[in-house]
Amino acid sequence: MRALALGLLLSLAPLTATAHGDIVQLDTRAGPYEVQAFGNASSEIPGAVDLSIVVEDAVSGRPIDDARVEVAAHQAGSPALASHAQARLAHESGPAHYLATLHLPASGTWLADLHIEGPLGPAEASLSLAPPAVSIYSRLTNGLTWAAPILAAAWIAFRWLAARRRPAAQPAPA
User: Fold this and answer.
1) Are 100 and 53 within 8 A, CB to CB?
2) d(Cα 37, Cα 85) in Å, to the nearest integer?
3) Nearest alpha-carbon partner for 118 in 64, 61, 51
4) pLDDT tens column, 23-52
5) Helices 136-165 and 2-17 meet at what angle, rounded to 10?
6) Which distant-in-sequence residues (6+ apart) come within 8 Å of 70 by Cβ?
7) How far apart are CA 80 and CA 49, in angstroms?
8) Tens-digit pLDDT profile for residues 131-154
9) CA-to-CA distance for 33 and 29, rounded, in angstroms?
10) What is the Cα–Cα distance from 141 to 71, expressed in whole angstroms?
11) CA separation (Å) from 51 to 82, 87, 109?
């Protein structure tokens, strides 16, 4: 039983390291604003890519929650493939936190332009959205994450069956 619990704990370790999937895509000053953009770049492209955008006053650090934020993306090398989204203010995620979902119709690297219209004036920023390179290490870790509890359960079941098949101890003749 202890082996099963240990196997389960060890198999969940890689999951805890990747549970917060959003990756900083942009952290820059754009005109009078400090802009940070986080994206779920771990998601597959093509498909929906969620961007979280934080807009603050670059001088005071005050959150800007009355701006209009638009995101326009086009595929690198192919401006004909494009996606556009109006970001909405998401109070539940924190002050000055805007959310936008881009629907990218093809795989590859996409370039996104942020256009901000706020109380301090307009600003522009750009970022690149690319699917992450999947290394052999990450594939191996994902495989081991699922294999470890299965192997631990199989080992425990094998030991239990082996113990049941042993003949009962015969009393020694007197």
Assistant:
1) yes
2) 14
3) 64
4) 778 888 999 999 998 877 544 567 788 888
5) 170
6) 84, 85, 86, 87, 114, 115
7) 19
8) 655 556 666 666 667 777 888 888
9) 6
10) 35
11) 16, 9, 15
Task: Identify the pLDDT of residue 141.
Answer: 65
CA distances from 171 to 21, 29, 166, 168, 174 (A): 62, 85, 15, 9, 9
Q: 136 by DSSP, 3-state: which?
A: helix
The pLDDT value given to residue 106: 81
Mark out the alpha helices in the chain (DSSP H runs): 2-17, 136-165
Question: What is the rounded distance in angstroms from the CA atom of residue 128 to the CA atom of residue 126?
Answer: 7
CA distances from 105 to 85, 109, 119, 129, 172 (A): 14, 12, 34, 13, 78
